[in-house]
Amino acid sequence: MTDSLQHTRMGAIPIDGGVAFRVWAPHAHGVAVVGTFNAWDSRRAPMTSELNGFWYTEIAGVAVGDAYKFHLSTPDGEFDRIDPYARAVTSSVGNAVVHESGFNWEGDDFELAPVNELVIYELHVGTFNDDDDADDSPGQFASVTARLGHLQRLGINAIQIMPVAEFAGDRSWGYNPAHIFSVELNYGGPLELKRFIKRAHQHGIAVLLDVVYNHLGPSDLDLWRFDGWSENDGGGIYFYNDARGVTPWGNTRPDYGRPEVRQFIRDNLFMWLEEYHIDGLRFDCTQFIRTVDGSRASELPDGWSLLQRLSTEIAEAFPNRITIAEDLQNEASLTASTSAGGAGFDAQWDGKFVHPIRAAVIAAEDGQRSLVAIRDAICHGFGDNPFARVIYSESHDEVANGQARVPQEIDPQDPTGWYAQKRSTLAAAMVFTAPGIPMLFQGQEFLEGAWFRDSVPLDWDQNQQFHGIVLLYRDLIALRLNRTGQTRGLAGQNTDVYHLDDANKVLAMHRWHAGGPGDDVVVVANFMDTAQENYVVGFPAEGAWTLRFNSDWSGYSEAFEGYPSGDALALPGEYDGMPCHASVALGRYSVLIYSR
C-alpha cells in the first residue's frame, strides 16, 4: 500500500511563548487540552478541527514540565486521554507531561561499527545493576552507566537494551508497552536515557533498542478506543477491529493498514534515532507483524509493507544504523533487500544457531551431541551475507519461559561447577568463532545462574568470583574483533567446517577473509569428556601456527585442567581436504584457536 499521509508534528510541541498541541481523533466532535495550566477545565482550551481527523491548538504560557491530557467529546461520551505522542508521563495511568526534546549531546558523532565487527551485549535495565537491597524499585539507566567500565573492558561494542517504553507496573520485561513515545519513569525517564546513551558513546559503545510493534499493552492502554469508536468489540482507531487484531498477548495489534497508525509507528522509530541517538533497533517478534497467527497461511500484507517502509526510510535517513528482526522462523526474506521483495532488515536473530548449540552442550551424554547439527548451525545463514544473523547461546527468551541459563541447564545441581563452566564456555567459543553477529546476555560472562526474571538482579559478586571466566570472554571478544591483528578471519566472509569426527566428537573449521598470515584462523573444538592427544587435523597452509586461545587454560578457572595444548606445526600432506596437516592436543570440552 502507499503511505500518503503527510507528516506533521504531533503531541505537545514547544513553540515561542507556549506549546502547540495536535492529536488524531477522527470520531470526536470536540477536543480540548486540559492540564495544570488551566485547572483541568475543558472549556478553556478548545482545539480546532483540521477537517482530516486531526485537532490542533496553541496555548500561550504552557511550559515544559506541565501536565496535560486531551479531553474528547464523542458520540460515546466524554473522557480524558493521555497524548499518544507524549514524550513523558507521570505513570502509565497518569498524565502526559510537556517535555523538551532538546539535549546537549556535546558534539556526539558516534559511529556504529560495521556489522562484521559488532559484538552485542543484551541487558535489562531493571535487573542489570539493581544493587540497592533496601529499595524495591528496579535498576535505572544511571545504574547501567555505572557498569560501562566493565562492559568496555569486556570488549563489547554494542549494548542492546530490552524495551524501555513506559509499561504497566513498576517491573516488567518491557514487552507490554503502554506509551511507546515515553521512557519508563522507573528507569529514570527520558533525560536519564539520553545521559546513558551519551556516556555509552563516550565509552565507545553503541546502544541498540528493542521496540515492540506486534502488539501494544495490553493493560494501561489509553489508546484503546481512543476516541470512543470501535467495531466488533475491538480496540478502535489504533487497532484492527477484526480477527487481525488478535495476538498471543491480547487483541491489541496495531492497524498497519491505517496511514495514521503507520505514521505513528514510523514517528516513534524516528524519535529514537533522532532525539535519542539510538544506533540501531531490534524489532520484537516480527512474525506477528507480517502474519496474523504466526503461520504462512495468515500473511498480513499491511504488516509486511510497513516493515519494508520502515527499513527503507531508516536506511535512507540513517545509513549507518542497524535494524534487526527477531522472527526466529528462518524467513530469509526478512534480510533480503526491499528491491528484491524482502523486508530490508540488516540482520535477524538466528534460531537455527542457538537451538542446536544449546542442545549440543546441554546434552548429558557425549553420544547425544550431534556434530552435524553443530556444523549446520555454524554454516546456516540468510542469503550470501554471513553477518545477516545474530548468533548467541543465551538471550532473554532462551533463559526464561521454561528454560534457564546454559550453566544451569547443563548441571542444575552444580551450575558453577566444572561441567557447567566447561560446556557453557564451549558454547560461547562457538558463538565467537562462527560467522554472524555474536551476542551475550547480561551476566553470561560470569556464569549468572537460574533463569531470567524482571525482579531478580544480577549477582555482581560472581564477577569477582569467576573473574577468570570473564577473562575468557574478554579474550574471545578480542580475537573475534582482531584486536591484535592476528585473527582477521573471524570477521571474514568465509567458513569451511572441514573436519567432523563423530566418534571422538571433534570439529574443526577454517575462517578467513582474504587468507594468509594474520587472516587465516583454524578452530578445533572437542565436544567430548575425553582429552585428545596427538590428534591430527588438516591445516590450510604449512608452517608454524600459533595457539591464540585454549579454553582449558587454568588461568580461566581453578577448576580447569590446563591441558598442555600448544602451537602447531603444519606439514605438507593432504588431510581433511586441506593441503597440510598437524597434530594438536585437546583438553576435555575445550576449544583451540590458531592463526599464523
Task: Walk me through what this model shows.
The chain is elongated and about 90 Å long. The strands form 5 sheets. Strands 9-10-13-14-15-16-17-18 form an 8-stranded parallel β-barrel, surrounded by 4 helices. The mean pLDDT is about 95. About 20% of the residues lie in helices and about 25% in strands. The protein has about 600 residues and is of the alpha/beta class.
User: For this structure, what is the CATH class of the domain at 488-595?
Assistant: Mainly Beta
How many beta strands in the DSSP annotation? 26
Mean pLDDT: 97
Biggest sheet: strands, sense, closure?
A: 8 strands, parallel, barrel
Order of adjacent strands in the largest pleated sheet: 9-10-13-14-15-16-17-18
Estimate the helix proportion, in percent: 10-25%
What sort of overall outline do the alpha carbons produce when their principal axes are compared? Answer: elongated
- The CATH architecture term of the domain at 488-595 is Sandwich
Quote the CATH topology of the domain at 488-595. Immunoglobulin-like
Please report the number of helical segments. 13
What is the CATH superfamily of the domain at 488-595? Answer: Golgi alpha-mannosidase II
> Could you say which structural class the secondary elements and strand pairing correspond to?
alpha/beta
* % residues in beta strands: 15-25%
Structure summary:
It is built from 13 helices and 26 strands. With 596 residues, it is an alpha/beta fold.
